[in-house]
Amino acid sequence: MKPKFQRKGGGRGRQSREKLHKFMVSVQNFVRTETGQDEAESRAHVERLVRRKSRKEMRKEKRKMKKNKKKAKQEAEARRRKKEVEAKQPPLEESNRGVSVEAAPQTPPAAVKPEPSSNPAGAELGVEKKKQLKRKVRFEEPAAQPEKKVKVQVMRKKALMEANEVEDREIRKLEKRLGLHKRRNKKSLPQSFISDGLDYSGETAGKYVPPHLRDAVDSRRRAELERLRRNLKGLINRLSEANMSSISGQVEDMYMSNSRKDMNQVLTEILMAACVTPALMPDRLLMEHMLLVSVLHHTVGLEVGAHFLEAVVRRFDETQRDGSVEGKECSNLASMMAHMYNFQVVHSLLLFDVLRRLLKSFTPQDVELTLLLLRNVGFSLRKDDPLGLKELISEAQRKASAEGQRFSDQTRVRFMLETMLALKNNDMRKIPGYDPEPVERLKKLQRTLVQNRSSGTDVKLRVSLENLLEAQRVGRWWIVGSSWSGAPMINEEKPTAQPVKGEQFSTKVLELARSQRMNTDVRRNIFCVIMTSEDYLDAFEKLLRLGLKGQQERDIVHVLLDCCLQEKKFNGFYAVLAEKFCAYDRRFQMTFQFCLWDKFKDLENLSSSSFTNLVQMVTHLLTKNSLSLSILKAIEFGELDKPKVKFLRQILSKLFQQTQDEDLAQIFSRVSGIPKLGMLCEGLKLFIQHFLLRSAQTEETLLTTRAEVAIKAMEARDAKLKL
Fold it and tell me: Is 14 found in the same domain as 144?
C-alpha cells in the first residue's frame, strides 16, 4: 500500500508543478514585453520564485541584508558630516549666492543615476550637469539651513517660556492653598533668642494694651506662671538621689522652653519653701536639693546658681540680724551655703566672709552656726585655703579668750575651739557626727551629671558676702549681662561714674602719664584713674570697673608700686590701696609678692626716696597682714650686701617699734612651723641677733623686748597647732 500511495502523490505533484511552470512562463512573457528585460533575467527571476530556498541561503541572504543596512547607515552618517563641514565653509563665488535652492533637484546627488547612452557628448553633458547640481547643493543649503534652525530655536524657546509661566502660576496657586511661605512677623524674636531665655529683653517695647484688656493679659500671665510653678513643684517633690538625672534633665528642658527669668524666680521660691522651715531639715534632703542647683548651675548657666545664692544670702542676713533663737531657719540657710560650696557653686571666699561675720558678733547662736559650717566644710576649707583657715582659727581663739567669760554655757565655746583644733591637726575622729561619705557620693554623682556639659572650666562664683548684699545698689558684676536698677541718674546729687577712657582725662594728666613711661593704653588708663581718684575706695572701684583680665590686671600692681616709688615723700594712699587689693583677692597678693621680689634684686639702683618708700610700703603690708614675711625668702641671708642689710634693718626696726606685742607675735608666727620657711626663720633670727640688736643702743629696751617676742614666735612649734 505504501508504494502505491507514494506513486500517486508524486504524480499529482508533478502535474501541479507543470501547471505552475506554464503559468510562470506566461507571466514572464508578459513582463518581458512590458518592461523590456532579457530572457536570462526573467528566467532567473522565475526560478528564484519557484525554487524553495534552503536554510543556508536564507542565512546568507539575512547576513547580506544586515551588511547592506549597516553600509547604508554609514553612508548616511558620512553625508551628514560632510554637510556640516560644508555649512561651516564660506561660499567660493559671489555669483553662486543668488542661486535658489528650489533649482536643485529633489533627489540627492548620490541617488541620481544617468541613463546609459552611447553618445559621448551626451555623457559629457551629464557629467557637467552633475557637477553643477553638486555645486548648487554645496553653496545654497548652508545659506538657507541656519535661518531655519534659528527660527526653530526661537519658537522652541518661546514655547518653553510660556510653559514655565504656566507652571509658575500653578505652583503659586498650590502654595497659596497649602499656606506655604507666609510673611513672617517682623516683631517676633528669633527662636534662638527664645531658646536662650532672651525673650524678656523686649517686654517693655510691646504694643499698647488698652485698660479694659490689661486684666485679661495679667490673668493669662498668672495662669502661665501657675502652670509653670505646678509642674516644677511636682518635679522637686519627687527629687531624690536615684532620679536626680531624670529630674535635672526635665528641669533643664523647662529652662529651654520657658523664660529664664520666670524659671529662676519659680525655682528659687519652691526651693526656699522646701528647705527653709522653722524646723531643722534633714541634711540629706538639703544636699539633694543643692545638688540639683549645682547641676543646673553647670549645665544651664551661671545665672541659675547666682540668683539662688543671692536669695539665700539675703534671707540669711535678715534672719541672722533678727537674732531669733526659736526657729532653725538660719541653720538651714547656713547648711545650704555650705553644700553649695561642696558642690562647686560658690567659692570659699563667701564661706570665710560668713565665718568672720559670725566671729565678729560672737553670740551663742553664732557659735552654733560656726560649728555647723566647720563640720560641713571645715576640711574642704583647710584643703583650699589653709592659711586663711589658720588665721580664722587664731581670730576665734582671741575672740573666745576676750569675750568667752560672758557666756553662761562655756561648753559650746570650748567645743568650738576643740573642733577648730581638730581641723588644724586634720583629725576627723575628734569631730563628733562627721561623716564625709554622703557628700563624697553626691559629689561623684554631680561629676557624672555635668561631665562634658559645663559652660566653662571654672564656674564657681567668686563673690564676697558684701557684694551679694549690695547687689541691688552696685550691680551684679559676676553675671554677664545682668540688669542694674540702682543709682538713678535723675535727681542725683553726685554724678554717676562713667566708663574710664583715655580721652576723658585732662591733657596735664596724660602728659604726666607719658613722662612716667606709661607706654600702653592699659597702663595709661590705670595711672590716670589712680591720679584722678578722690580716695582709695574711689580708685579701687574704678580700677575694678575697667574689667581687666590676666596680664592687664597685673599691670595694676606694677603701676601702683611704680607710682609709690616715684613720690618724693611716702604717700600712704598707695599703701592703703595696695592693702585693699590684697584683701580683695589672693591673686593680687601673689602679684605684689613677685613685683617686690623684682625690686629686692634692684635695691642698689634705687634712689634714696624710692628706697624709703619701698620700706614704708612693705612695712605697711606686713603690719596689716596683707602680706606675710615669706616675701623675704627671696633674699639670700648668706650673701647679704649693704643695700639688703639696710633694707632688712629698717623693715624690722619699724615692725618692732610700730607694732604691739600681740600683733608682732602674729606676724612672725605666720612663718613658724612651715618646713619650707625654716631657712627664712633661721636667717631672720640670725639677722636680728647680729645686725639689729648689736647695733642698737643699750637704752633701747623696747627694741630688745620686741626682738625677743619675734624670736619666740618663730620658735613656737606646737605640734597641735601645726598644719
Answer: no
